[in-house]
Amino acid sequence: MLRLAERFGRYGMYGVESIEDDFGEGLAQRHDAAMNFVKTGGRFGRGEDPRVLAARTNYFRETYAYDEPVVDGIEPFLRHPGFAAGARKVHGRELIRPNIVYANILVPGQELAVHTDVPEFRGLSRKKDPQWLMVAMHHSGLFDAWRMRIATGVAWFGHCRGGGEFVFYPDGPWDQPVALPVRHNTAIVLDTDSVFHGVDRVTEDRVPMPPLRQGMQLCFEGDGAWSVRDGDRQVAAYDWDDLRFSISWKAYCYADADEERAVRDHTDDLTRDQVLETLTADLRRRGRIDALPSDTELALTIIDAYIKFPPPTP
Ligand SMILES: [Fe+2]
Description:
Elements: H1 2-8, E1 10-13, H2 31-40, H3 50-57, E2 60-66, E3 68-69, H4 75-78, H5 81-91, E4 95-106, E5 112-115, H6 131-140, E6 150-157, E7 166-168, E8 178-180, E9 186-190, E10 197-199, E11 217-222, E12 225-230, E13 233-239, E14 244-254, H7 257-265, H8 272-285, H9 295-306
Antiparallel strand pairs: 1-2, 1-11, 2-3, 2-4, 4-14, 5-10, 6-9, 6-14, 7-8, 7-10, 11-12, 12-13
Helix pairs in contact: 6-9
The structure holds fe (ii) ion.
């Protein structure tokens, strides 16, 4: 896997996808997680300039497989029986369809804000619907009948010098988190759409974090050396052990062939109107809104009412 990562060679920054939707205009796709990170300063409640916080959480990512392998040699990982067995356990469902594999690389000083992943519902998609809305829908519990069950595997390769623990809240956001250290050739499978998780800061004492900006690339330079480049200019130099390298695996988990068919044939899809009617009625019942709030007001109320982040522990 390390050789495959080197062969792939160049990793772009995981940018903020823009919203092209009237509903919640002006909100970031992951408005929920970003707002919480800036408000709390992350898991340890560190106060920092929002621009520095943004650089910390804007890590490097590339896709290795999307339904089909994108890079040679990823097939055994995509079809790894250990992941499928883990996925069956997570959701208690038999039909496991792996669909995506992607690499995440964090350089010293980077971390990943605590969040839950963007879930999927029949009839909605992260391409056409706001991602924060889909996250709130799942946390509301009101749309479980339409939710796709997705299992996520995270595997680590390499020997990161320090930090970069995978932190997750297996017993819910109010209970103690578990911090898994990065260990070469180990993995975990969980429901990252439901379980809050993040990555603690990668130790920064050897190479301080450069001012990272969108558009920079992490490049393999040969012989165990990596660099961050801004066009042709080298911004920082690393060796393998400075980096935190993980590979994520995601699979749809179906109860049976009938369910898989219903998804494919769109015989039981949700519509956006249905979603907003259900949420608005629920918020009204709870006294969170009256009359007709503006779209932005409604959007912020939805995030606040349903997505309950784990509190920071300074
Ligand atoms: Fe995640």
